[in-house]
Specification:
There is one protein chain. By secondary structure, this protein is α+β, with helices and mostly antiparallel strands. Helix content is 27%, strand content 26%. It has 11 helices and 27 strands. Strands 12, 14, 22, 24, 25 and 27 form a 6-stranded mixed sheet that branches. The protein has a 6-stranded mixed sheet with strand order 16-17-18-19-21-20. Strands 1, 3, 4, 6 and 8 form a 5-stranded antiparallel sheet that branches. The chain is elongated. 43% of the residues are buried. Bound molecules: zinc ion (ZN). Zinc ion (ZN) binds next to helix 4 and helix 5. The site of zinc ion has 6 residues, from helix 4 and helix 5.
């Protein structure tokens, strides 16, 4: 304990020392900005000013010096002498020193260069170098963002030092801004959206041009899901081609050993139910016939044929209350023992449709497993894509309850610094896997999911092969699609969902009573009103996008300069959509 404390103390002390040395070495300020020993240095113009390259020649920066009186109030300090120093950049200062006027105000002009630049200027009290205030003047190129109503610009080439997006908007216009990054590996990219207002005052932006420090996003660790890979793929024991009267429920997810009797034998399925023999036959019959008549043909159309390695003509479904912690499981039975089988939880508080949703889900895993075992020897596609296909199976079979909950979560879960598509499977993000897979079928289908199942490829490679797009292009289009689909802004098929109505689903919501609204209203957009200055800094996770809506001021048409900066990270992009 003592050793740890001592070590911590040493660590903290050396950090402080390192920080002091770092500033001292560079000739920069030491101490905290804003004054000390009864002095207050306050911004009279914003700490950060962004001006259009080539359009603005000089920027005046100013501060106010005050002194604390005996009563504890602050009064302006006249005739205070300040040194003014450029620490960074190419801007030229009009003076190297400044003196405060009777109001305590001191200023210098910065002549900005014609090209992109960040000039940092520090005012420092001559009587006390520890009382200082820094200013940043950014000169950025202008990107004309004059979009027509309905126009989508999916990628704006923003230079390294950021850019001013210039909008000309009437009252009632509506612009969607989608900062994004499509890299599935790079995390923690910060960006900033800054609007200074038409006449920036001191309060417009009190923060600097440095990227604000934000906490690293903490995604949950990857999970194993409900497709359980067998220990070594051996096909030693082949099941007989006959249908057994009962089956042992013991499996990869159930440790109990017990016989479950055959309760339904249909054309495509044999249901073994681990429950009292005299209960629930009507329920079991309706589950069996729904699989035979609806789920099996629909999944065949969507994903491809179901194998019959064991030659019994049916899929074995074992329903047991012993399956806990998951609603269903596929235990790699095709590769391990050459049998088409999966497990589904048997719960009395589940409706028939809830059980059927799980069956549609697990059946997809079974189909996926056989195709992959034939092509690449695996138990299925990459976990996240395999699960996405199963969630799509639930929705496309019309089992909307959980799909609606996932869609609600998806539409209300962005702008939070967590990935839109983490490729390490995490069940908390099931909503996103579902949303992407449905988009792929809607845009590239019918037949896109079948192609994914049968290509012999996995994950990102599989999606690139089937869609003909790079993964980056696919993600970018999807990011835009979930922002604009079903809003009536554009009829571009690249941005359209057909299986889902992101602006509707009233009937499905009414039937399941599973969302806190009567109708969906699209991706939730964070509003940025142009009637006031704003300064928004956020962090994007891997493969992530955020969603904003620019709302122009109510009075007359206006030109609005919105500064976008990703602090040198060129893989951070921004898309813009003009709604009206
Ligand atoms: Zn699953």
């Amino acid at each position: 304990m003592t050793a740890i404390r001592a070590a911590r103390g040493w660590w903290a002390a050396s950090l402080t020392l390192a920080a002091a040395l770092a500033c001292g070495d560079g000739g920069g300020p030491v101490g905290a900005p804003g004054g000390r020993d009864g002095l207050e240095l306050a911004y009279a113009t914003p700490r950060l000013r962004v001006v259009a390259a080539g359009e603005v020649a000089t920027v005046r920066i100013a501060l106010i010096v005050r002194r604390r009186t005996a009563e504890g109030a602050f009064e302006p300090l006249a005739d205070a002498r300040l040194a003014v120093e450029r620490e960074e950049g190419r801007g030229q200062l009009s003076a190297a020193a400044a003196v405060t006027d009777p109001d305590g105000l001191a200023s210098v002009d910065v002549a900005v260069p014609g090209g992109p630049d960040l000039t940092r200027v520090v005012f420092r009290m001559e009587s006390d170098a520890g009382s200082y205030l820094p200013f940043d003047v950014v000169t950025a190129p202008v990107v004309e963002a004059d979009l027509a109503p309905g126009e989508v610009r999916d990628r704006v080439d923003v230079p390294k030092g950021g850019a001013i997006l210039r909008f000309r908007l009437e009252p009632g216009s509506d612009v969607l801004l989608i900062p994004y990054e499509t890299d599935p590996d790079r995390t923690g990219a910060t960006y900033r959206l800054l609007y200074q207002g038409p006449a920036p005052g001191a309060g417009a932006s009190a923060s600097g041009a440095d990227p604000p420090r934000l906490p690293r996003s903490l995604a949950p660790p990857p999970e194993s899901g409900d497709v359980i890979e067998g220990e070594g793929a051996h096909r030693g024991r082949l099941a007989p081609a006959t249908i057994a009267e009962s089956i042992d429920i013991r499996s990869c997810m159930i440790s109990t050993s017990r016989q479950a009797p055959l309760r339904y034998l249909g054309s495509r399925v044999a249901l073994y139910v681990d429950g009292p023999a005299d209960e629930g036959q009507a329920r079991i019959d309706s589950i069996g016939s729904a699989f035979d008549e609806r789920i099996f043909p629909r999944n065949t159309e969507l994903f491809g044929v179901t194998s019959d390695v064991d030659g019994n003509g049916v899929v074995i479904v074992i329903l047991s209350p012993e399956l806990v912690g998951a609603d269903g499981a596929y235990c790699d039975s095709i590769r391990r023992v050459g049998v088409e089988a999966f497990f589904v939880t048997w719960r009395h508080d589940y409706s028939v449709d809830q059980t059927l949703a799980v069956i549609a889900h697990e059946h997809q895993h079974l189909v996926n497993a056989w195709h992959h075992s034939q092509t690449n020897g695996g138990v299925g596609d990459d976990r996240w894509l395999n699960e996405g296909l199963s969630f799509a199976a639930e929705a496309l079979n019309g089992y909307w309850r959980d799909s609606m909950i996932r869609l609600w979560t998806f539409l209300n879960g962005q702008n939070g610094g967590l990935s839109m598509l983490p490729l390490d499977y995490v069940s908390a993000f099931d909503d996103r896997y579902m949303a992407l897979v449905l988009y792929v079928e809607d845009r590239f289908g019918p037949g896109a999911l079948r192609a994914l199942t049968q290509s012999g490829l996995r994950g990102v490679d599989n999606l690139e092969h089937v869609t003909g797009l790079t993964f980056e292009e696919l993600l970018r289009d999807w990011f835009v699609a979930v922002g604009v689909s079903n809003r009536g802004w554009t009829d571009d098929p690249r941005y359209a969902y057909r299986s889902l109505d992101l602006h509707g689903m009233e009937q499905e919501i009414e039937a399941c009573r599973c969302a806190p609204v009567e109708s969906f209203s699209g991706m939730r957009l964070e509003t940025l009103p142009l009637s006031n200055p704003f300064d928004v800094s956020r962090m994007l996770d891997r493969a992530d996008a955020d969603y904003y809506r620019l709302v122009p001021a109510a009075s007359g048409p206006g030109t609005y300069d919105v500064y976008f900066d990703a602090f040198g990270r060129e893989f951070v992009q921004i898309a813009m959509v003009r709604a009206r």
